[in-house]
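A protein record in our archive is deliberately plain, so that people and models can read it alike. The tokens are whole numbers drawn from a learned vocabulary of local backbone shapes. For reference, a complete record is included directly beneath this paragraph.
>
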Amino acid sequence: MVEDIVLPKAYSLRYAYKNDDAFVFALFCSARTELSLLPLSPQQRELLVQQQYRLQQAGYAAQYPQAVTLIIEYQSISIGKIILNPSANGVHIVDFVIAPQFRGYGYGSVILDSVKAYAQAKEASVSLSVDRQNMRAKQLYLRLGFLPFEISPTQEWLSWPSP
């Protein structure tokens, strides 16, 4: 699958390996800043963040056993990760995080456009969910043509092209 996603020259996707664990954990922490606001001791907070990370990873593995975790690189520098779950009728983006220092420069748009092109070549759709509080990510997805198809109190599910 990863071999079929066409990216601009400076970009690459590679499968995540065990030695990427620290980077992937740092990405998790950067996307969960609300956990740092909890009134806990530093030790309790670290334990909670690690537990939340392990629960997320186990949940993804259970819910999406065919998913692949890919590290996003720009000029050979790891800048983010994307977890893709391919299916017969589409690709679901399970998780997508760009490291904070690389946000806002268009890297995410390039990756999402490439995933959309991959899906379009397969006559498939792309779906994802976004936390309703994450307005920056939601704006990106809407700007790239994703449209909501389901809403819960905490999440919005979007699809491209829209169903």
User: Anything to note?
Assistant: The longest strand covers residues 77-87. DSSP finds four helices and seven strands in the chain.
